[in-house]
Design a protein that fits this description.
The chain contains 28 helices and no strands. It is mainly α and 800 residues long. It folds into three domains: 329 residues, no CATH class; 115 residues, no CATH class; 255 residues, Methane Monooxygenase Hydroxylase, Chain G, domain 1. The radius of gyration is 31 Å and the shape is globular. The protein starts with a helix and ends with a helix. 45% of the residues are buried.
Length: 800
C-alpha cells in the first residue's frame, strides 16, 4: 500500500516546514540582536526599542514566504503612516511633559479607534500600528519632559523598520523562501493524495466482499484530512504568490494559484466517499457486471495517472482520457434500470463522470422576471437588503473599533497606575493580538496568558544558563522557536498561545535595560494580566451576547435559508438554487465558528451548551449543503445534455415536489421551534390567549396540521418508483446515442440520490432538534408538531 509511504512523507514535510519556519524566525531575530548589540553606535541610538523589533519579526515572519514578507514591508510602512505620523503631531501639540495616565490612555484610545475603524486595512498593519501607538504615548508619559516629540516616534518607526529588514533578509538567505515553490510542493503532495484516495475508492467500489471494501474505505478516509490541509495550504498562499510575481519575472508562469481548480478535483472525491458511505447492501455492488467493472477499472487507472501527473504549471483539470474508453464506459450504462438501492452506486459513477465532464457553470440560466411591477419590487427589495447589510457591517466595524480602543485605553491606564515604568506592557499584548473576527474570549485570553508565562519562564532559564554570555544568549531562542511552532499548530494553544509564547521568551532574552530578568518577568506577567483582564471586561460589557445564543440564532437562520434552497429545486430555478446553496454554505460555516466558541466559553449560571447535539446538527446541515451542490451539478448536466423535454421535465418536477414539501415544511417547523426559549412560557402564553379554538381566526388548532408535511416510507418509496418510471420515459426520448443516454441516466440517478439524502438528513435533524429542545426543557414533553402549531397560532394572533 502507498498510504503509509504518503503519510510518512507528509510527516517529514510537516517537520521540515516547522523547522524551516523556526530557523527563518531565529535568523531574523539574530539579525535584530546583532544589529542592536554589536552594530554601530548610530544604529543603536536610532533603534531605541529593540523589543518592538522582535515583536515586528514575530508578527511578519511567522510561517511567512518571501511574498508575505514583501507584503509585510508595505503593511509596516502603511502602519507607520497611521501610527507614528499622527503621534508626532499629537506629541508636538500636547507636549510630553503634560501627559498623565488619563490623557495617555485617552490619546491611545482615540488613535486606536482611527486605526481599527477602516475595514480595508490589513490585520497585520493594524497590529503594528497599534503597537507603535502604545509605545509612542506610554513611553512619552514615562519619560515626561525628556521625550523629544519628533525623534521619539521616529525611533519607534526605526525599530519597526529594523524588524522588517531582518524579515526580508531572513527570507532571502541562504536561499529565498518562495510561496510558488511551497505551493508547487503542496500541489504535488495533493495530487499524490488525491490519486491515492481515488484508487482506494475505485478498489472499494469494485471489491468482491465487505471486508476488502471496508478496509479500502477506511484507508481512503485516513487521507481525507491531510488532503484538506494541503488544499487549504495551497489556497492561503494565493496573495503571497501575487507579491512574488513583480520582483521575480521568471516566476510569472506560477503567478496563478490553482486552489480553486484543485477544489474541482476535491469535490467529486468527496462525492465518491459519500456514495460508499451510503451503500448498505453487501459488496460486490449489484449493478457491477463484468463489462461495467472492466470499464470502471480501465477509466480509474487512466484518471488516477492523470491526477498524479498534475502540477502547478500544468492544467489542473482532469484531461480527456481515451475517447474510445470513455464512450465504451457510458455505453454500458444506458440499459440500466435504476432502483432505490442502486442509487449510491450510480452516484459513485456520476462523481466519476464529474472528473471527466465538469458542467459549465456559465450555462446556468438567469431567472429574469418579465413583469415590470415585479422587477421594480425585486429591485426595491434588493436595494433595501443591500442598505441593511451596509448598515449592519458599519455597525460591526464601529463596535469592533470602539472595543479595541476602550480595551487599549483601560489597559494603559490601569497598567500605568500599577507601575508607571512598565505600563506599556499591559497595552502591548492587547495591541499585537488584535483579532480579525469574533473569538472565544475566555479561551483566547487563557492561552495568551499561558503562552506568555511559558515563554517568560523559558526566557528566565535562558538568561540563567547564558548568564556569563549575555551577548549571545538570544541563540537559546532557536529550540523555543521550534517548540512554539508546534504549539501554534496544536489544538490546545493555537495561533494566539503560540505567538504569545514566542514573544514572551523573545522579550526576556532580547531585552536591554529592563533590570534583572526575574523582576522584569514578574512585572511583565502582571502587566499582561492587567491588559488581558481589561480586554475580557470590555468584551463582556460591550458584547454580552453569548456564543451559545448566537449559535441558536444562526441555526434558525440556516433552516430559513435551507427552506428557500429546497423551494428552488426544480428544472427552472437552477440559478436560484446555486445562489441559495452558496448563501447556506456561508451561514453554516458561520454557525460552526459559533459552536467552537460556545464549547470553549464558561457556562456561569446559564444552561450548559449542548455541544454534542449542535455538532450533530452541524454535520447534517453540512451534508445537506453537499447534497444540494451535487444536485445542482446534476441539474446542470441534464440541461446541457438533454436540451430539455418539457412534458417529462414537468413530470419529474412533480415527483420531486413530494420531497420538497416534506423537507421544506420540516425546515419551516425547525426554524420556528429552534427559537423557542422555554416551553413552559410558550404554554403559559398559549393558555393565556385561550387558543384551544381560535375564535379570531375562525380555525382550530387542527388547521395547523399542514405545518409539517409527514411522508411515510411507503409514500417515499412510491414516489421513487414514479420518479424512476418518468426518468425511463425521459431517457427513451433521447435519440443522440448510447453514450449521452448513459450520462443522463447517471445525472437522473444522482438527483434522486441527493433527494434521498436530503430526506434522510431531515429526519436526523428532527431527532437532534427534539433532543436539543428536551435538553433545554427537561421537565416538558416535547412534540415538535404541537410546538410549531402554538408558535404559528401565537404569531397569527399578533399579526391580526
Amino acid at each position: 500500500m502507498a498510504t503509509p509511504n504518503f503519510e510518512s512523507s507528509r510527516a517529514r514535510a510537516v517537520w521540515r516546514t516547522c523547522l524551516l519556519s523556526a530557523l527563518r524566525t531565529a535568523l531574523a531575530c539574530t539579525i535584530v540582536g546583532v544589529a542592536t548589540l554589536f552594530g554601530p553606535q548610530y544604529i543603536k541610538k536610532q533603534i531605541a526599542l529593540p523589543a518592538f523589533s522582535y515583536v515586528t519579526v514575530i508578527l511578519v515572519v511567522t510561517d511567512a514566504t518571501l511574498g508575505d514578507t514583501f507584503r509585510g514591508c508595505w503593511l509596516a510602512f502603511y502602519a507607520t503612516i497611521q501610527g507614528v505620523c499622527p503621534a508626532i503631531l499629537s506629541l508636538w501639540l500636547i507636549g510630553p511633559a503634560r501627559l498623565t495616565a488619563g490623557t495617555t490612555a485617552i490619546a491611545v484610545a482615540i488613535s486606536a479607534f482611527v486605526v481599527v475603524l477602516p475595514d480595508y486595512t490589513h490585520l497585520i498593519a493594524k497590529r503594528i500600528a497599534l503597537g507603535q501607538i502604545v509605545l509612542v504615548y506610554a513611553i512619552a508619559y514615562i519619560n515626561g519632559g525628556l521625550t523629544e516629540p519628533v525623534m521619539h516616534p521616529v525611533h519607534v518607526a526605526a525599530s519597526t523598520g529594523l524588524g522588517i529588514v531582518a524579515c526580508v533578509l531572513a527570507l532571502i538567505f541562504p536561499y529565498p523562501s518562495l510561496a510558488c515553490c511551497e505551493v508547487k510542493n503542496n500541489c504535488k503532495l495533493f495530487a499524490e493524495n488525491a490519486s491515492e484516495r481515488f484508487n482506494l475508492f475505485v478498489k472499494a467500489f469494485s471489491a468482491e466482499d465487505n471486508t476488502c471494501a471496508l478496509a479500502f474505505i477506511s484507508q481512503a478516509k485516513s487521507l481525507v484530512k491531510t488532503g484538506s490541509k494541503l488544499l487549504q495550504g495551497i489556497k492561503t498562499k494565493q496573495e503571497s504568490m501575487k507579491w512574488e510575481r513583480f520582483p521575480f519575472k521568471f516566476l510569472r508562469p506560477y503567478g496563478e494559484n490553482p486552489g480553486s481548480r484543485f477544489q474541482d478535483l476535491q469535490t467529486p472525491l468527496r462525492g465518491m466517499e459519500i456514495a460508499l458511505d451510503n451503500y448498505s447492501p453487501p459488496f460486490p455492488v449489484g449493478i457491477l457486471n463484468l463489462e461495467l467493472k472492466s470499464g470502471v477499472e480501465m477509466l480509474g487507472e487512466r484518471i488516477s495517472e492523470q491526477i498524479k501527473n498534475m502540477s502547478l504549471d500544468k492544467s489542473t483539470t482532469v484531461p480527456e482520457s481515451n475517447p474510445e474508453n470513455t464512450q465504451k464506459f457510458f455505453q454500458t450504462l444506458h440499459t440500466i434500470q435504476p432502483t432505490k438501492k442502486d442509487l449510491p452506486s450510480l452516484f459513485f459513477l456520476f462523481c466519476l463522470n464529474l472528473l471527466l465532464n465538469k458542467p459549465n457553470a456559465n450555462s446556468i440560466p438567469k431567472e429574469v422576471s418579465t413583469n415590470p411591477k415585479q422587477q421594480d419590487q425585486e429591485g426595491f427589495l434588493k436595494r433595501t437588503w443591500t442598505n441593511y447589510l451596509s448598515i449592519t457591517k458599519n455597525n460591526k466595524r464601529f463596535m469592533a473599533a470602539f472595543k479595541c480602543s476602550l480595551s487599549l485605553g483601560l489597559s494603559i491606564y490601569f497598567g500605568s497606575i500599577y507601575s508607571k515604568g512598565n505600563g506599556f506592557w499591559a497595552g502591548l499584548p492587547v495591541a499585537i493580538s488584535l483579532a480579525g473576527s469574533r473569538e472565544a474570549t475566555f479561551k483566547v485570553a487563557n492561552v495568551k496568558a499561558q503562552g506568555t508565562v511559558l515563554g517568560t519562564i523559558y526566557g528566565i532559564i535562558g538568561c540563567f544558563v547564558f548568564e556569563k554570555y549575555v551577548k549571545i544568549r538570544f541563540l537559546s531562542l532557536l529550540p523555543w522557536f521550534i517548540i512554539s511552532n508546534f504549539l501554534r499548530q496544536s489544538t490546545m494553544y493555537g495561533q494566539a498561545g503560540g505567538i504569545s509564547a514566542v514573544i514572551g521568551a523573545v522579550l526576556i532574552l532580547g531585552r536591554k535595560g529592563f533590570g534583572p530578568p526575574s523582576e522584569f518577568a514578574i512585572a511583565r506577567i502582571t502587566e499582561t494580566f492587567i491588559g488581558l483582564s481589561c480586554s475580557i471586561m470590555v468584551e463582556i460589557l460591550l458584547h454580552p451576547t453569548r456564543a451559545s445564543t448566537l449559535a441558536k440564532l444562526q441555526l434558525s437562520k440556516n433552516f430559513e435559508i435551507l427552506h428557500d434552497c429546497i423551494g428552488s429545486i426544480s428544472f427552472g430555478s437552477l440559478g436560484n438554487l446555486v445562489e441559495s446553496k452558496n448563501k447556506l454554505l456561508s451561514h453554516v460555516n458561520e454557525m460552526g465558528k459559533f459552536i467552537v466558541e460556545a464549547e470553549a466559553e464558561p457556562n456561569f449560571w446559564f444552561v450548559p451548551f449542548h455541544g454534542v447535539c449542535y455538532t450533530k446538527l452541524m454535520g447534517s446541515l453540512s451534508k445537506m449543503v453537499e447534497y444540494l451542490h451535487f444536485g445542482s451539478q446534476a441539474f446542470m448536466l441534464l440541461e446541457q445534455e438533454s436540451g430539455g423535454i418539457d412534458n417529462f421535465v414537468n413530470k419529474l418536477d412533480g415527483d420531486i415536489k413530494l420531497f420538497k414539501d416534506f423537507i421544506g415544511s420540516s425546515m419551516k417547523c425547525f426554524e420556528e421551534v429552534s427559537l423557542v426559549k422555554s416551553l413552559a412560557i410558550l404554554d403559559k402564553e398559549f393558555e393565556k390567549k385561550k387558543l384551544s379554538v381560535d375564535v379570531e381566526l375562525g380555525t382550530s388548532p387542527s388547521s395547523y396540521d399542514n405545518i409539517i408535511r409527514y411522508a411515510s416510507e411507503e409514500e417515499i418509496d412510491e414516489n421513487f418508483r414514479s420518479y424512476f418510471q418518468h426518468s425511463k420515459e425521459f431517457v427513451d426520448q433521447i435519440v443522440d446515442g448510447e453514450e449521452l443516454t448513459g450520462q443522463i441516466v447517471l445525472s437522473l440517478s444522482a438527483l434522486a440520490f441527493c433527494m434521498d439524502g436530503l430526506v434522510k438528513e431531515t429526519k436526523e435533524i428532527e431527532k437532534a432538534i427534539k433532543e436539543l429542545v428536551q435538553w433545554e426543557n427537561p421537565s416538558s414533553h416535547v412534540n415538535l408538531h404541537d410546538i410549531s402549531c402554538k408558535v404559528r397560532a401565537l404569531a397569527n394572533i399578533v399579526a391580526n
